[in-house]
From TrEMBL:
Residues 14-157 form the Flavin reductase like domain. Keywords: Oxidoreductase. This is Flavin reductase. It comes from the Bacteria. InterPro entries: Flavin_Rdtase-like_dom, NADH-dep_flavin_reductase, Split_barrel_FMN-bd. Coiled coil: none annotated. It holds the Pfam family Flavin_Reduct. It comes from Pseudodonghicola flavimaris.
Amino acid sequence: MTGVFDQMAFRRALGQFPTGVCVMTTKVEGELLGMTMSSFNSLSLDPALVLFSIDKRARSLPQWEQARGYAIHVLSEGQQALSNRFAGRQGDKWAGLEFDTGLFDVPLLHGVAARFECAPHQIHEAGDHRLFIARVDRFTANPDRRPLLFTGGRYGAVQSNTEEAPIWPLAIHY
Ligand SMILES: Cc1cc2nc3c(=O)[nH]c(=O)nc-3n(C[C@H](O)[C@H](O)[C@H](O)COP(=O)(O)O)c2cc1C
């Protein structure tokens, strides 16, 4: 590539790809951990694998690398406050929050659009992030809750599209 690589322009271009917002949770040596994440994606159906990436500057990265399991919560519309709570670096992210306990003793949040309880599968070096691939052991979804969206550095909402026929899964073979 020639010329200077413009990182801000790169980020803006990536922001044109809308994502949902997830909060990953785990418990490591008795400490509850939670982190807001938009880098979640599906990876494999068989085996059931998903992926997410964590910035190497994250204070809790060494603990995420030790975790025996994680829960990935897909936030629903109206859960921006939960997203902001788990995106902060300071303070106790868990103060006053109610949760249940799932596989691997992992905290489970309420009111989400979907949840995946996972075990670690692989962790890869990936530039300034670590790429986590996780095996899904149990999941639940609430189709009545619309997901919270994130695009261009802002939260957004899905517009009603119930009048349109779903295009997925496509009637083709891969
Ligand atoms: C919408 C949104 C998406 C985010 N996605 C990611 C992500 O995919 N990976 C990541 O490492 N940090 C992401 N962050 C930032 C982390 O949530 C934040 O840096 C982290 O909670 C800090 O953790 P620490 O207390 O361990 O340093 C995101 C923040 C927001 C608000």
